[in-house]
Amino acid sequence: MGVSSKMPLCYPFIKWAGGKTQLLPKLYAFVPAEFNRYFEPFLGGGAMFFYLISVKNKRFTSYLSDINSELINSYAVVKDNVEKLIDVLKVCEIKYKKSQSEYYYKLRANTIAAPDIERAARFITLNRTCYNGLYRVNRLGVFNVPWGKYKDPVICNSKNLRNVSLVLRLSKAAIKICDYKKILLGKAKEGDFIYLDPPYNPTSSTAYFTKYTNTGFNYKDQEELAAVFRKLDDRKCKILLSNSDTYFIKELYSDFAEYITEVDAVRAINSKGSKRTGHKELIIRNYSR
Fold first, then answer.
1. Which of 29, 55, 236, 280 could form a disulfide with 190 if both were Cys (CB 3.0 to 4.6 A apart)?
2. By CB neighbour count within 10 A (0-12 exposed, 13-18 middle, 19+ buried), where does 4 fall?
3. Per-block average pLDDT, block size 10, for the chain (289 residues)?
4. What is the pLDDT of residue 101?
5. pLDDT in the model for residue 20
6. Residue 179 region, left (φ>0) first, then alpha (ψ -120 to 50), else beta?
7. What is the spatial order of strands in the sheet that 260-265 belongs to?
8. What was the pLDDT predicted at 270?
9. In whole angstroms, what is the distance from residue 161 CA to residue 282 CA?
10. What is the model's pLDDT at position 216?
11. 3-state secondary structure the chain
């Protein structure tokens, strides 16, 4: 692949509801020992990708994708234009510190089409300063998360952004705005490792944090994902999936019951600290390892 023997250490440059940073050691226990191609079609913060390639120094060809165009634009800009992005983010950081709430809502309201670098800077700034790092849009697809009220948020971490850029370039990561079905059914083949981290099945009527796009991710979508899981299993791909610990999800993947593991998790998105712990999630796979 033409990569160096050791990648620089890096981590997600955005916060993401449902991000997997706190579960990475548990997930890694189920990562296949060997694979040459890696797919992460619900990319979000990309915690698994960065952990595998940077912390664990794995080497593979990667296909990173998501249906969220603002998210994917930011990855592409970090990869190809990181220095210009850093310059714009530094200006955003200065303006934000002068009048936090005012600047946040002004930036959020500015939905006029802009060049890719400015779009990425807006996305990252809002992400770093909004409530709980939540990405949520209304029916018109307009970002509507309130200001996060953080005292001194880091908007521009230049070192990490440069390391992320280097990792994405050295690994020749393919970054695409794409529906998971299209990328997986179009490209995945025997022996590929696929990590699926979809918007979770809600555990209660008030836990429906799936509005990353204006289409959401409902029960029918979960059923379609399970059907794709089976098609990929037929192709002999190695699939690792995360989801909430609900009866519905266990039934959807009952064919793989012997490979379903229940793990403790933290719900960092909950507004009440006392309700962030004590949760269970499922790690589902189709292989022994």
1. 236
2. exposed
3. 70 88 93 96 96 94 96 98 98 97 96 95 97 87 92 95 96 95 98 96 57 68 97 98 95 97 74 57 93
4. 96
5. 86
6. beta
7. 174-177, 61-66, 37-40, 193-196, 238-244, 279-285, 260-265
8. 46
9. 31
10. 67
11. CCCCCCCCCCCCCCCCCCCCHHHHHHHHCCCCCCCCEEEECCCCCCHHHHHHHHHCCCCCEEEEEECCHHHHHHHHHHHHCHHHHHHHHHHHHHHHHHCHHHHHHHHHHCCCCCCHHHHHHHHHHHHHHEHHHCCCECCCCCECCCECCCCCCCCCCHHHHHHHHHHHHHCCCEEEECCHHHHHHHHCCCCCEEEECCCCCCCCCCCCCCCCCCCCCCHHHHHHHHHHHHHHHHCCCEEEEEEECCHHHHHHCHHHHHHEEEEEECCCCCCCHHHCCCEEEEEEECCCC
